[in-house]
Amino acid sequence: MKGAKQIIGEIRGAFIRHQAAMNATLSGYQRDVENAKRESAKFKDEAAILAESKTKLLTSARTKTLEADKELHDEITLRLLPRLKAALSEYITARPSRDYMDSLRDIKDFNLTLSRSELQGYITAAEGNFTALRALQSVAKGCGYMLTIPGVESFQMDIDAIEKAVRTPVMYAADYLHEGLEVMPDRPVFRPDGSVGGYGGRPDSAYLIVRRQEFKSLLGKLDEMSKRWEADFVPSLGEFAELESDDGEIISPEVQRAEKLKAASERVQIEDIRAVENAAQTGRQQAEADRKAAEGLAHYF
User: Fold this and answer.
1) Vertex 198: Cα angle to 192 and 201 (nearest 5)
2) Domains of the chain, residue spans
3) Which residue from 80, 77, 41 is spatially nearest to 193, judged by alpha carbons?
4) Could you tell me if 171 and 187 are in contact, meaning their C-beta atoms sit under 8 angstroms apart?
5) Closest to 141 measured CA to CA, from 300, 273, 277
6) How many CB atoms lie within 10 A of CB 225?
């Protein structure tokens, strides 16, 4: 999809920056608390002085945490996700070639059938256009084939997963679980729309460990998301420029686009409905034959 790779790359960058910010905040809190312990030990009322110092350090660290959460949330939800949603909308609504649609209409009007190889040619000619593939899916069914095309649902699930990950407070303790137990705000209870409906008390280790795993899991899936989103969009020839390979070979726009077309076509799966039905019919006939044979043997004995 147009620009999706860059957008998801920027989303990944925002998550990595948040990760670094939280490591810096919590490691700084850890260091400052240790310094406060050494300093307070010099005084008679050590406990009171340490408690006062920790309160100030905790307030500062929690403020930085909430600021980092807001920065991540705003970067993703206000700048990057709207661009990703726009790319998805563009993919869904892009108009297919009139000649392509006229050709499919002729096949239906004249009750023509397509062979598997002809169907594969139409898949390539669709150039990844969503509407063209959906129309071809309908034609293919009439020819005895089931076409499985990339669905919009998986892209929406990606968007939902990213939105969920940046709900605030994010509650990501990075590599400092012990410090996170002190610095993180109370555990949020989110409403379906992502807003905070209340708080469930202080977070425990299990909660922060699960939250850290969710954060890192999404970070790891962004590369796969990027490849999947990019694979379903085939840019026009004019959007490619010559590239030079590592060994000095010039890769023309035509070659690059042909590779994109091939990748998009390979994501469309063809299943012969008639073959499946024939196999099922054969199975039923064999089962019936086995049943009759068993009845015959039972009668004989």
Assistant:
1) 125
2) 1-233
3) 77
4) yes
5) 273
6) 23
Q: What is the 3-state secondary structure (H, E, C) of 217-283?
A: HHHHHHHHHHHHHHHCCCCCHHHCCCEECCCCCEECHHHHHHHHHHHHHHCCEEEEHHHHHHHHHHH
Decide if 171 contacts 21 (C-beta within 8 A): no
pLDDT per residue of the chain (301 residues) written in tens, 0 to 9: 668 889 999 999 999 999 999 999 999 999 999 999 999 999 999 999 999 999 999 999 999 999 999 999 999 999 999 999 999 999 899 999 999 999 999 999 999 999 999 999 999 999 889 999 999 999 999 999 999 988 889 999 999 999 999 999 999 999 999 999 999 999 999 998 889 999 999 999 999 999 999 999 999 999 999 988 887 766 665 666 788 877 888 888 788 877 877 878 888 899 998 655 554 455 555 655 556 555 655 655 5
Closest C-alpha among 270, 232, 259 to residue 153: 232
Task: Decide if 181 contacts 205 (C-beta within 8 A).
Answer: yes
- Beta-carbon neighbour count of residue 172 at 10 Å? 26
Q: Which residues contact 127 (CB under 8 A, 6 or more apart)?
A: 234, 261, 264
3-class DSSP state of 183: helix
DSSP string, 26-87: HHHHHHHHHHHHHHHTTSTTHHHHHHHHHHHHHHHHHHHHHHHHHHHHHIIIIIIHHHHHHH
Provide CB contacts within 8 A for 185, sequence distance 6+. Answer: 62, 65, 66, 169, 171, 199
Beta bridge partners of 271: 146
64 in Cβ contact with 25 (< 8 Å): yes
